[in-house]
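Need tokens for this chain, all 425 residues.
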Amino acid sequence: MLKLEDVNLAVIGLGYVGLPLAVEFGKLRSVVGFDISAPRIRALEAGHDITLEVSDEDLASAQQLSFSTDIANLAECNIFIVTVPTPIDEHRQPDLTPLVKASETIGKVLKRGDIVIYESTVYPGATEEDCVPVLEQVSGLKFNVDFFAGYSPERINPGDKEHRVTTIKKVTSGSTPEVASLVDALYKQIIIAGTHKASSIRVAEAAKVIENTQRDLNIALINELAIIFNKMGIDTEAVLQAAGTKWNFLPFRPGLVGGHCIGVDPYYLTHKAQSIGYHPEIILAGRRLNDGMGAYVVSQLVKGMLKRRIHVDGARVLVMGLTFKENCPDLRNTKVVDIIRELTDYNIKVDVYDPWVSLDEAQHEYGITPVVEPITGAYDGIILAVAHDQFKSLGVANIRQFGKAEHVLYDLKYLLSAEESDLRL
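Here are the structure tokens for all 425 residues:
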């Protein structure tokens, strides 16, 4: 059995999840950070993380961390932590391709006694049913005889400088009790918030996938309430503030549900549920409601424009914000694109402004080229879609300067007061 002091670590996938993890381990022990993207590796070797999750200073402090795209550099490693993305496809089905490819890569260098730990969000059973067979097939080794597995779900919150990888309690697990203890001890070296050793890999997988499913359903409830209150002419934020005076009221707010977790993870659970013959009614209802919020926002904006006799066909609208959340450059599964596409269906010209995003990445991912600066006095409608600090600091007067003399200002994120905006969710 591998001992903690003999661990040679590799982190496979250096995105929002993998890089912070590799950096923390790289402050204590030798770590190979592996990624298939050569530009990503070049940037990290130059000392900069374009995701902004890790500062240049923090990156430099991980003196035992090296970066590579060469599988040969993994040959001496004996514990592999997999942190690749687990997206959904166009049919909202789990896409395990990155996970399978990572498993194939590891399988080529897997040796007797090695351990493969997965952090990617999956449905219960995926590690042992989908990933382990790939490792066995490529390596020719036998699971739980020649090599072992673990699962420790990521809990990274992009853009959050308070809740970091080391300060969030970590769930750990292993394919045998001995491996579970080693995996737990490994993470305890860097996780100052402590760990929770789950009873099995499947329990750890299930725990992760329900964390975001729960949040998704809570937001769906608030979104539905917002729709109801809008029809009743009641300000949703005022209702939530009043209800929030009770100690056990949960402070969720309505809005778009995107990103790499909340808008994706429930589909992993529903996929697994359907595969075993159960149709999950509540989870899918919440997903349908949240996925429809972009269209709802645009319908409200269009109604607001029509009430002011603003001609919709050929109108011009400014969307402020493109990332899936505030104060980070993360564009993964952003639902702001639903608003943009819906607006274009009305033959509305859309300008997107977001000081956080890479213009090249926005073009590559969504075919959208954000404007460098909005045009003063040009827009029939303005949508505050993301609560970036830069937008907060502008204030309502400066934001309204982008609009024509007659325009509609829709505040999705409660950046402004009810009196300062024309419409709120």
